[in-house]
Specification:
- This protein starts with a strand and ends in a 17-residue tail after the last strand.
- The model is unreliable at about 225-230 (pLDDT under 50).
- The chain contains two helices and 25 strands.
- By secondary structure, it is mainly β.
- It has two domains: about 5-95, Rossmann fold (3-Layer(aba) Sandwich); about 100-210, Hexapeptide repeat proteins (UDP N-Acetylglucosamine Acyltransferase, domain 1, 3 Solenoid), CATH 2.160.10.
- An eight-stranded mixed sheet has the order 7-10-13-16-19-22-24-25, with helices on one face.
Length: about 230
């Protein structure tokens, strides 16, 4: 069997966690080889991150060799992930999914290409997880729920059964969405919110119970804090 060479696109905290998923998959015997990080920031020659090389910018794929590597766009902000995935895909690169060995995914659930399923996630029967979705640590997605492509679900958030989440949505840490609720494209659910009613596209809902508080930010994770990136 040919080993799957996988490149992590991005080099922030989210990307480092995705690397750990790939390493865990390799540790249990799956044919996965994490090649390194591709990142458009400026790095010194020979730089590594968590013991894995920084390969360069997106142009690296043009000289990547064979077998052709696959990519995971490991960026937590939905709009940025979509932009990167579009640019990477335009280079003819295929996408791999990163699914933690400790995740519990029902046999009738479907996971899209480029999706990231972190440790201790539960995906119920009939659930549909779109392309490039990030299900962070401890997320639950119950039966028959649909999570649209490029959406990000924060650690410990819970989506009950028959929820519909649009594309490029962001659900904050510890939020809860009750059964049957629909959340429109590009909407943001605040951390710790409890969503009892449908949320229109492009809006932010927060609180317990959740209320609409204004338009959604395209950068819901931007806390304007200095980078803590560590070069090793």
């Amino acid at each position: 069997m040919t080993t799957s060479r996988v490149v992590v696109v991005g080099a922030g905290g989210h990307a480092r966690e995705v690397l750990q998923i790939l390493l865990a998959c390799r540790q249990i015997g799956l044919d996965v080889e994490p090649v390194g990080f591709v990142d458009e920031a400026t790095w010194p020659d020979g730089a590594t991150l968590d013991g894995v090389p920084i390969l360069g910018g997106l142009e690296w794929f043009e000289s990547a060799g064979q077998p052709a590597p696959e990519a995971v766009c490991a960026v937590g902000t939905p709009s940025v992930c979509r932009s990167l995935a579009t640019r990477v895909g335009a280079r003819g690169v295929r996408f791999a999914s990163a699914i933690s060995p400790s995740a519990l995914v029902a046999g009738t659930a479907r996971i899209g290409r480029g999706a990231m399923v972190f440790p201790n996630v539960v995906v119920g029967p009939g659930a549909l997880i779109g392309d490039h979705v990030a299900l962070n640590v401890g997320v639950t997605v119950s039966h028959d729920t649909v999570v649209g492509s490029f959406s990000g679900i924060g650690p410990g958030a819970h989506l009950a059964g028959n929820v519909t989440l649009g594309t490029e949505c962001f659900v904050g840490m510890g939020a809860n969405v009750i059964q049957g609720v629909s959340i429109g494209d590009g909407s943001v659910i605040g951390a710790g919110a409890t969503v009892l009613d449908d949320v229109p596209s492009g809006m932010t809902a927060a609180g317990v119970p959740a209320r609409l508080i204004g338009p959604a930010s395209p950068m819901p994770l931007d806390r304007r804090r200095p980078s803590r990136r560590v070069r090793t």
